[in-house]
TrEMBL record:
<comment type="function">
    <text>Pyridoxal 5'-phosphate (PLP)-binding protein, which is involved in PLP homeostasis.</text>
</comment>
<comment type="similarity">
    <text>Belongs to the pyridoxal phosphate-binding protein YggS/PROSC family.</text>
</comment>
<feature type="domain" description="Alanine racemase N-terminal">
    <location>
        <begin position="31"/>
        <end position="234"/>
    </location>
</feature>
<protein>
    <recommendedName>
        <fullName>Pyridoxal phosphate homeostasis protein</fullName>
    </recommendedName>
</protein>
<feature type="modified residue" description="N6-(pyridoxal phosphate)lysine">
    <location>
        <position position="39"/>
    </location>
</feature>
<dbReference type="InterPro" id="IPR001608">
    <property type="entry name" value="Ala_racemase_N"/>
</dbReference>
<keyword id="KW-0663">Pyridoxal phosphate</keyword>
<dbReference type="InterPro" id="IPR029066">
    <property type="entry name" value="PLP-binding_barrel"/>
</dbReference>
<dbReference type="Pfam" id="PF01168">
    <property type="entry name" value="Ala_racemase_N"/>
</dbReference>
<dbReference type="InterPro" id="IPR011078">
    <property type="entry name" value="PyrdxlP_homeostasis"/>
</dbReference>
């Protein structure tokens, strides 16, 4: 089996899982965007997926984003940045990404806004919400990034007021070893509260290869799939 065959099969399967979860939840598959997380995989895979109709691609490291995105400038894909972001890397990410899913502090909002304004590239920002409270351990230190739910409104307000940034909604990663369904229920209520104050901020980026059904049931608009599409990643040191 060639790599293209493999990606074709995986993509078909992933689209079927999304469609099934949508049907079960009484939603239309058109409401859910598949974002292919291509971290650690080569540019050829991005090209192949784009050729198969994937429109959204994501990376979690600035270095990889800046290596791949310019080489893929001929492709009609939207680039997403989903990893933790140092403020000093904000400019480079804004150069190449259309959406940043991992906005988690006011200083990053300032850095992103300055970069977006300087470069004349508006950036859609999602507030990353910590769901550590739904995990098995003590909340402190077990999180997988993001702000605590009660800090979302203030950070969202900062994004909404920042020049060059568009407040898009929320993003989260389910806690390891926790109940993804409960965690995504919590995220759904954070998202509903955000929408009541900012009606346009209606994206919910939730669900990865292991928990996409749980996320779609609870309103995810963007699922971020790595392994389900591309296969097992090499372990990084
Ligand atoms: C790697 C990654 C994903 C994809 O995870 P899989 O389990 O491979 O589907 C999604 N979101 C973020 C933030 C990631 O870093």
């Amino acid at each position: 089996m060639t790599r293209l065959d493999e990606l074709t099969t995986n993509l078909k399967r992933a689209r079927q899982s999304i469609a099934q979860a949508c049907t079960a939840a009484g939603r239309s598959p058109a409401e859910v965007t598949l974002v292919a997380i291509t971290k650690t995989f080569p540019l050829d895979d991005v090209r192949a997926l784009a050729g198969l109709g994937v429109t959204d691609v994501g990376e979690n490291r600035e270095q990889e984003l800046k290596a791949k995105a310019p080489e893929a400038a001929d492709l009609d894909v939207t680039w997403h940045f989903v990893g933790q972001l140092q403020s000093k890397k904000a400019r480079s990410v804004v150069k190449y990404a259309d959406v940043v899913h991992s906005v988690d502090r006011a200083s990053l909002v300032t850095a992103l806004s300055r970069a977006a304004t300087d470069l004349g590239r508006p950036v859609r920002c999602l507030i990353q919400v910590s769901l550590a409270e739904y995990g098995p351990g003590p909340v402190a230190g077990t999180g997988r990034g993001g702000v605590e739910p009660h800090d979302v409104p203030a950070l969202a307000e900062a994004v909404a007021e920042a020049e060059g940034l568009v407040l898009g909604g929320v993003m989260a990663v389910a806690p390891l070893g926790g109940d993804a369904g409960k965690a995504f229920d919590g995220l759904a209520s954070v998202a509903a509260r955000l929408r009541s104050e900012h009606p346009g901020a209606d994206w919910i980026s939730a669900g990865m290869s292991g928990d996409l059904e749980a996320a779609i049931t609870r309103g995810a608009t963007h699922v971020r799939l790595g392994r389900a599409l591309l296969g097992t990643r090499p372990v990084l040191g």
